[in-house]
Amino acid sequence: MKVAILSGGGDAPGINAVIRAVVRKAIQDYGYETVGVRDGWRGLVDGDFVPLDLMKTSGMLPRGGSILGTSRTNPFKQEGDPERILENARKMGIEAVVVIGGDDTLGVAHKMNELGLPCVGVPKTIDNDLACTDYTFGFQTAVSIACEALDRLHTTAESHHRVIILEVMGRYTGWIALEAGLAGGADAILIPEKPFKVDEVCEYIRRRQKRGRNFSLVVAAEGAKPLGGEEIVYSSGTDEFGNVRLGGVGYFLGREIEKKMNIETRVVVLGHLQRGGSPIAFDRVLASRYGVAAIDLVNEAKFGLMVALQGNKIVSVPLKDVVGKRKKVDLGLYEIAKVFFG
Ligand code: F6P
Q: Is 121 left (phi over 0), alpha (psi -120 to 50) or beta?
């Protein structure tokens, strides 16, 4: 059997670890042939493949990015592309595709599976916003990087008696902001699930000042929005899946705080630093478990499923139950983080 592997959407630390695991298990235990698809669904539309074997995937466990490249190509935006994918898979003799992606990429996997391309999904995104899984791989690495950034910002904020706002990614959920903020001792955490009031943030800063702490750290998820307002976008254009580019809430908040309070404020946008580079051990282990579980599903001819982590067990869930949903943050965890605000 020939199995193809593709990664689509924003990259996340651990993609190469998944590819390595799929290839290793597929060749060693099942005697399959493996082939990589370049740049997500774009590669299947264009028939752009690269052979994958044990040698090619050796040494990839700690490597960031995706050796296959990635893209946000949506074949359902272009007439004839889904048929092109089916035709290219047939020509290449591909009998199964392991699709590594977030909601958009796996949404395509679900539709292509229905059209007759046997697909198995692997949950990837630093945002951790996919339904039916406790964790997507890449998320914990992003949290660690944001936490380290907070530790570093702490000392400079303290020395200069400033407010520093760290803007992190996460799209329409606040997972990275919440977990990194809790781990990094943030004095306020703004998440999309809880629209914020600038006055409330200022109140936390004042409360600290009254305790003699004349500096504060605020973490703002890029999708956080003021109560009654909208998310702040960097540019209004959208990608092929209709996603806008979020960004700017940190600067908005910084300006508001300086207007309302007599305290110097700085803004740091962490950006793609939280997506690039090597995965932490947790994500290497999770990615390896996901990769092995995905090829096991292929071997059992169980398609239209996504591997998932539930209570530290690897399970499989129907792609149709995953796509189009958005896993919001655990508000119980937010209440815990709130104990440390101000
Ligand atoms: O979905 C992952 C993510 O990193 C989001 O957190 C962020 O909004 C977006 O991708 C950024 O995408 P791009 O790669 O287009 O800058």
A: beta
Which tens digits make up the pLDDT trace of 274-325?
999 999 999 999 999 999 999 999 999 999 999 999 999 999 999 999 999 9
- CA 169 to CA 181: how far, in whole Å? 13
Ligand 1 nearest-atom number relative to CA 176: 6
Q: Where are the domains of the chain?
A: 2-137+279-321, 140-274
Q: Does domain 140-274 have CATH number 3.10.20.30?
A: no
Domain 2-137+279-321 has CATH 3.40.50.450: yes
Q: Nearest residue CA, atom 10 of ligand 1? A: 10
Pick the catalytic residue from 11, 104, 127, 283: 127
Ligand 1 pocket, Cβ-based, cut-off 6 angstroms: 10, 102, 125-127, 169-171, 222, 246, 275
Please tell me the distance between residue 10's alpha carbon and the centre of ligand 1 in angstroms. Answer: 6
Query: What is the distance in A from the centroid of ligand 1 to the CA of 105?
Result: 13
Tokens 């059997």 belong to 1
Question: Distance between CA atoms of 18 and 289, rounded to whole angstroms?
Answer: 8
- DSSP state letter for 243: -
pTM recorded for the entire structure: 0.97
